[in-house]
Write a structure and sequence with these properties.
This protein has 115 residues and is mostly helical. The chain has six helices and no strands. It has helices spanning 2-7, 13-19, 25-53, 55-73, 80-98, 100-108. Helix 3 (25-53) runs antiparallel to helix 4 and helix 3 packs parallel to helix 5 (80-98).
Length: 115
């Protein structure tokens, strides 16, 4: 779900420019860049939340934030700003999902079986 939200606009770059003439190349590239930009500041809070609240609650937080982002992106007919805001929400929820496998392996496998 997260990766689909991240990269889906790359294939329709020219169609976005046609549909939204006021959007610039920077605006459309922002839709991908925001994931890498927001990962840096959101990673420490996500790791802390995963450590303190556990895997289940952190997955629910990440998925909830991303669902809100997808819903916001669904308002694309109201303006391109909704797509940008939705992408930002998707990128905020990304670390809560991408940091799960590390914690899961440390909880699931004994220390001697981990790499």
């Amino acid at each position: 779900m997260n990766t689909a939200g991240w990269i889906c606009f790359a294939a329709v770059f020219d169609k976005i420019l046609f549909a939204y003439p006021d959007a610039t190349d920077f605006d459309i590239n922002f839709l991908s860049w925001i994931f890498m930009i927001m990962f840096l500041p959101m990673n420490p809070p996500a790791i802390t939340y995963i450590e303190n609240k556990g895997l289940r609650k952190s997955i629910l937080v990440g998925v909830s934030i991303q669902v809100l982002g997808f819903w916001m992106r669904a308002l694309v007919n109201n303006g391109f700003i909704f797509v940008m805001a939705g992408q930002t929400l998707l990128s905020i929820g990304q670390p809560y999902i991408y940091n799960q496998p590390v914690k899961l392996s440390s909880v699931w496998f004994p220390k001697e079986e981990r790499i």
